Amino acid sequence: MGPQEEERELSIDEEYKLWKSNVPLMYDFVSETKLTWPSLTVEWLPHDPQAPLTQQEMIIGTHTSDQEPNYVKIASIELPNEVIDPHNVSDAPVKSNVRITKKFKLEKEITRSRYMVQDPNIISTIDGNGTVSIFDRNSSDSPVKTYSYHKDNGYGLSFNPISKGQLLSAADDGYIAMYDINAESEDPVETWQSTDNCIINDIKWHHFDATLFGTVSEEKNTLSIYDLRTKDKVTSIEMEQPFNSLAFSKHSKNLFSAAGTDQNVYLYDLRNTRKTLHSMSGHEGPVTNLEFHDSVDGILVSSSEDRRIIIWDLMEIGSEQVNEDAQDATPELMMIHAGHRSSVNDFSLNSSIPWLIASTEEENIIQVWKSSSRLPRISNSKPFINYDLIN
Question: Can you give the residue ranges of the Histone-binding protein RBBP4-like N-terminal domain (predicted)?
């Protein structure tokens, strides 16, 4: 016999087939929908208390060709309320339960859309021109307000979770704008400019202090923390490669995270940003987005151009591992969602049903999925409802 043939790298389709075969072991629920156009954004809306918990809504957008109009859309999904035996799952395609219930027309592609925490009927968007639009889902299909401050494509958009009506935007033109959507004026109430007008990749409000927000930009690959009281940066972190996203913890006022081109996920303490608290490796491509869990302390989720979403359990940092486990991953890497076949554009954690996630990718696909309640970190808390894989 000749020398043993080197192990062949699986194709994307083969990886997807392998992932699908492991779905019954790794998930309580998976749903996949092919959209007409890809969505660059997704965000769960708060659950309507008048509706069953199994009925959930989300915001998505479109990125169409130049000849087609774009829309920001309200989509709903009906979750099953009975467990299906995962050992009796067939190879049939996963059913789609996502349907569009309302849409608002825009000219350019929607790069990001976010709702206002204090009134989820108010939805903001930023588009390929950097135009920020405000919609009221109970009003007309046209924007109730439009801000045309930015002159370039933008991905930064964040409503203040504490101060009602305060909205931040950031764009590739290197500018940051803050709006008061309750005011009559359609001009920003405050603006900031990055050095050399460098691209700003993300912007987020702090969850405990209404005056703090953070940005990540390609200005010397910098993460910056701003304070409205000083109208300037209060701290900044420079990296060798750009950050693409940042997130503030919803459980600790000092903890925040950032990640980007170098594929690692970093943890920081606001009280001392001169050094990294911890760095986590697991992605094989630039990180595209970060989000801390709403209701479970110590859980951080990241997505990447490597087609993966990783759930990190920060409580496991420093835990001892047997040699075999240590070779596979760091102890804080809780789960890898490998169901996407192209770069992950955005994802969102559901605030009503812990561990339920919606994620979108470049190839027109949106997935809704929940990690298995058999996983140790999840099994410690009782699920709100019982549901399993849809065929």
Answer: 14-81
Tokens describing residue 296: 């479970």
Q: Which residue has the tokens 């996920």?
A: 265
Q: In whole angstroms, give the CA distance from residue 76 to residue 128.
A: 25
Nearest to 346 by CA among 132, 126, 149: 126
Which residue would you say has higher pLDDT here, 2 or 191?
Answer: 191
Say if residue 386's pLDDT is above 80.
no
CA–CA distance, 156 with 243 (Å, rounded to integer): 13
Cβ atoms of 31 and 96 closer than 8 Å: yes
Q: Do the beta carbons of residue 56 and residue 47 sit within 8 Å?
A: yes
Which tens digits make up the pLDDT trace of 54-87? Answer: 899 999 999 998 789 999 999 999 887 643 333 4
- Calpha distance 241→261 (Å, rounded): 6
- Quote the CA–CA distance of 105 and 155 in Å, as a whole number: 19
Burial of 302 (0-12, 13-18, 19+ CB in 10 A): buried
N residues, the chain: 391
Task: Tell me the per-residue pLDDT of 8-19, one tens digit each, with 9 for 90 and over.
Answer: 789 999 999 999
Distances in whole angstroms, Cα of residue 378 to Cα of each of 310, 321, 353, 354: 15, 20, 12, 9
Q: How many whole angstroms from its chain centre is CA 21?
A: 26
Global pTM reads: 0.91
